[in-house]
Amino acid sequence: AMFKTDPVRPDAYREFERPLPEWFRGAALGIFVHWGPYSVPAWAEPTGELGAVPREEWYAHNPYAEWYANTMRIEGSPAQMHHERVHGGAPYDDFLDAWKAEDFDADEVLAVVAATGAGYFIPTTKHHDGVTLWDAPGTDGRNTVARGPRQDLIGAFADATRAAGLRFGVYYSGGLDWHFSGLPPIEHDDDPAPDDLAYAEYAHDHVIDLIDRYRPDILWGDIRWPVAGIEPGPKSLAHAFQTFYERVPDGVVNDRWGESHWDFRTSEYVHGTAVEVGEAWENTRGIGLSFGHNRNETNEHLLSAHEAVRLLVDVVSRGGNLLLNIGLEASGRIPELQRQTLEGIGVWNRHYGHAVVGARPEGRMPASDEPWIRWTRTDDAVHAVVDQTGPVRLPDPDRVLDESTARIGERHVTAERVDGGILVDVEDAVTPVAISFRTRD
Ligand SMILES: C[C@@H]1N[C@H](CNC(=O)CCc2c[nH]c3ccccc23)[C@@H](O)[C@H](O)[C@@H]1O
């Protein structure tokens, strides 16, 4: 099924279980990039968020612009009409040749990414359309080195990520490959996906090639892994994981590799309670409703910097990381509206990153969201993040040992215990504001 069931860990994969490395646990924020031939039409209906759109409407009115190759093939869909009218019903692969990446500069993209305070960066290497952003084995020229951008985009991203001092991950669509499988368009959650051994070995060779060439720190699989590849064999998923952990001992893999193994769980848009427990999970979403750039998205569809920061703080306060996606334009530029949100997150992190980077849950969750408050803990402090200024009454005073140590950034502020709370005088601060209390000298 397309949607997630709780993956089982078969015995054959138990050998890969390991503690979660601190570099991932403490990262708080990662940045995703979806970029491909779909970035040329960059067209989808901004229907709504995953989880908020009825499943029976999802596929014909898919807000994920990176699904264009599927949506355009659904009879009568608005995307099909758009494709006929604007692109004359041309073959999807024309977009690969039309994709020039003429303004692409990996270092420029990574400068914006690093300025957000993110600890890792993950580009798509092969999305569901099967086009690879490096000269992957078996792709017979259907990749960005032989056609379109005529560049190893993954190599460019890997080098720029390391130069910027971030960890590097690779997204790989294991569960869907519409080119390889040649299946009809997906219109329902349980429509078939490629499961045969030929595809499993093809995909295995891609993952091995990515490991050998780019030494990624994260393998971010999507949907699931072809069932035939889960079984033992020379090109099994177990062999790929073995190769990965040999080459990258402190590497991590997500939970979208079928019934096998994961280092961290993932949720997408919807906050899935079953996944978001403990301290080894990540919530991913676009800045808007789509991962691929969608030219139809306007301000109303995008998270503002303020909303993105509240999401980041909420996720970190519950033990997770936020993986926030940029949909690059075909030219390689970051869409202006998305750039504004990213810059705003960076401004906030420069003020209050000490409350989220390297932070973990402080303990109990707040009773309600009025007023909104989230607590985190770092080695030497407890942080209360509130979204208001003026006299703020923090509940649960027993979370705080010594209110006289209250600080906002570097500035000491007055805080006094009142009945059932701690009153802090928050004035002229960037909101959401992190009020920090030292827990030891
Ligand atoms: C990051 C995004 N992932 C989508 C696939 N994700 C989903 O179908 C969400 C549901 C889901 C499938 N397998 C899972 C495993 C763990 C958590 C959620 C899912 C892709 O379809 C989408 O284009 C984009 O790449």
Q: What would you note in describing this structure?
A:
By secondary structure, the chain is of the alpha/beta class. It has helices at residues 22-25, 55-58, 68-71, 78-87, 94-98, 106-115, 153-163, 178-181, 197-214, 237-247, 305-317, 336-352; strands at residues 29-34, 120-126, 167-173, 218-222, 252-253, 265-268, 281-286, 320-327, 360-361, 373-378, 381-386, 390-394, 407-408, 411-412, 415-418, 421-426, 433-438. The strands form 3 sheets. An 8-stranded parallel β-sheet has the order 5-4-3-2-1-8-7-6. A 6-stranded antiparallel β-sheet has the order 9-10-11-17-13-14. Strands 12-16-15 form a 3-stranded antiparallel β-sheet, with no helix packed on it. The longest helix has 18 residues, at 197-214. The model has no long low-confidence stretch (mean pLDDT 95). Residues 2-4, 64, 66-67, 222-223, 255-256, 266-268, 284, 291 line the site of ligand ZX5.
- Compute the CA-based radius of gyration: 22 Å
Shape estimate: globular
Count all strands and give the number: 17
Measured as a percent range, the helix fraction is: 25-40%
Bound molecules: ligand ZX5
State the helix count: 12
Spans where pLDDT lies below 50 across 5 or more residues: none
What class, by secondary structure content?
Answer: alpha/beta
Can you write the helix and strand succession as a string?
HEHHHHHEHEHHEHEEEHEHEEEEEEEEE
What is the CA-CA span between the terminal residues? 53 Å
Portion in beta strands: 15-25%
| Sheet with most strands | 8 strands, parallel
* Mean residue pLDDT: 95
